Amino acid sequence: MTDSNGIDDRRAEQRRTVRLTGTLFHPVTGKQIACIVTDLCSGGAGLWCEQPLPSGTALTVYIDGFGRFDGVSSRDMLGHTGITFTDTGQCAGLKESLLAYARDGMTAVTRLRRDPRAAPDAAIGHFRRANGEAVPCDVLDVSLRGASLRTRHRPPVGEIVHLAGTRGWVVRHSEAGVGVQFLEHRA
Question: Fewest 10 Å CB contacts: which of 9, 90, 112, 119?
Answer without folding.
Answer: 119
